[in-house]
């Protein structure tokens, strides 16, 4: 582990090594000429542990420091670490254990990035490390080309000495060429889904690899790529060369393209030369053109083209779009004399220079999805809420429509202005954008689609621009956002919409044997009316509260319901069959206090205290929730709201500025940068109402609130989504305010 002026991070890094469950370690800490207190700190941190040795070398960069330590090391296996990062405690045990079992040359663990506010697994790491794989090769797992870090893996020392040998010295990105060499030549490696390395993103820009706007950083990246290409020409196959070119164009040059529109002339010259060089190599690689070009995301191809042709205003405009999370929709333009590329974005159309075929094919290369997060019913339609995701393109309500269909019959087409307002999430990848969509499928359309069938499958497609249509896969959300099957009635028939990964979107129908038509309270008695295919007998709540017949309905005294020990479902007997009757969605919207309609359409009595969230109000700095009594018992006096904000290190209390059992209000949590700007962020806030000395009060969310999400601040600076989890309200608060662009001349 080389270290250079990392006094503020060193203790955490060394502590993570001392905490390893695999303890047969030799740790070589190499002071690379630090001028702060790092050297003294390293010695004090390791003085009592004979496994640690502190070495000193003149300042020469990480490559030279690592080579110095390699020459001293004695282990059967070798690995590396940067001094501002962290290694999970079971990382080395997992990787060495994998190698002992497989006999592979090296083991690659998953990577988690983190900063002072959050932690996340990068997209490339999710693609490579989605499952454990043992004894694979680059030919069998080409995705591994995307992972060229030095520190998230363990190597057999014999393999390292034979295949890799040493790091380049005197440059940043010294790991690119050695890690490439390690993957070539048919080497066998294990891939672990487990995170074995936590890679810090330093807000102080102290990491040598981070300042992508600096000419020296770009020069080192260009040098590393040039050296890597020499290795590929000498040792790589045609397939490996094409795969590596896709990596360079999609990942390695992208951070620099973002600065090209406003950079110095020297920076631009080098960027243009580098982009042109790799576009030329890509055009000349048959493997790249035929197999790997689809891995270069659409807007990055266009940015490379602008840079190579020194069209800096166009590159700056594209960069601004990407910073605003609105990548342009890129499609072929065959109608013009010079076939080129159309950037179809709301309010602007740009014709690019004539492009090679591989570069001009700009339709999405990944599946488009409609992620369904909510299924509900209103008086006239099925409500389907979700997120339309089209990777690599802009999806704005001004230019996009979504169509749901059954076979050749269109159920419904949703387009502006009925399409929900576009929302770009701050944690979404820059390769695409998302659109919140609320689709209303009329009941008569559902009945027409089903006709006499028990089940029909629903498909979808999106029209992105004139003549540009993509198929859309309908999938369920995850966790608490997963849609539950919510049946309702169309005439005497129950229709249940189901969304699953395996079956897509399915509509199922069945004849309803018994239906709750009406629920009222009259003269202190709860009154229920039924429609059934046979005589209804023994209606009851749970096993203890029976309803009595009278005046064409069934009734029970409200005090009897209030005496129940816990929530109880409504059950009836029809013929000889015990059933839980289905209540129409319309009935659920006018239920008296003490009765609730469950998500599956059944009814329940609620004797205890319960609050129902009925309203969410937002200002630029505050969120207010309004709740109403839903259970028969009142909320106990003295109950208090408790709020916690979830952070990477755990939960912290959040101050509530005003509250009563029926109203809770708190300041919007946010993160500020040094200049006072609010940074984009996602925060979870968990709210519970706790009885004095007792359990939390049961909380639920009114359907109308769920159907109305998200709740947007007046200035669109943030939005709020509401979930319910174990008698608590969970709010997902997402800041959308962007950092201010710096002026290229003043640096402000």
Secondary structure topology:
Layout: E1 2-3, H1 7-18, E2 27-31, H2 38-46, E3 52-56, H3 62-72, E4 77-78, H4 91-102, E5 106-114, E6 119-120, H5 123-128, E7 133-136, E8 153-156, H6 157-164, H7 176-183, E9 189-200, H8 215-235, H9 238-252, H10 254-260, H11 265-284, H12 286-292, H13 298-308, H14 312-323, E10 329-333, E11 340-345, E12 348-351, H15 357-360, E13 368-377, E14 381-391, E15 401-406, E16 409-414, E17 432-442, H16 443-450, E18 455-465, E19 468-476, E20 488-490, E21 493-500, E22 504-511, E23 514-522, E24 525-532, E25 536-541, E26 545-546, E27 548-550, E28 553-557, H17 558-562, E29 568-574, E30 577-579, E31 582-583, H18 585-588, E32 595-597, E33 603-605, E34 610-618, E35 622-629, E36 640-647, E37 650-653, E38 656-660, E39 663-667, E40 681-690, E41 698-701, H19 703-708, E42 711-712, E43 718-724, E44 729-735
Parallel strand pairs: 1-2, 2-3, 5-9, 13-19, 23-31, 34-41
Antiparallel strand pairs: 4-8, 5-6, 5-8, 7-9, 10-11, 11-12, 13-14, 14-17, 15-16, 15-18, 18-19, 18-22, 20-21, 21-22, 23-24, 24-28, 25-26, 25-29, 27-28, 29-30, 29-33, 32-33, 34-35, 35-39, 36-37, 36-40, 38-39, 40-44, 42-43, 43-44
Helix pairs in contact: 1-2, 7-8, 8-9, 8-11, 9-11, 9-12, 10-13, 10-14, 11-13, 13-14
Please describe what this structure looks like.
The protein has 19 helices and 44 strands. Strand 23 and strand 24 form a beta hairpin. Helix 8 packs parallel to helix 11 (265-284) and helix 10 (254-260) packs across helix 13. It starts with a strand and ends in a 13-residue tail after the last strand.
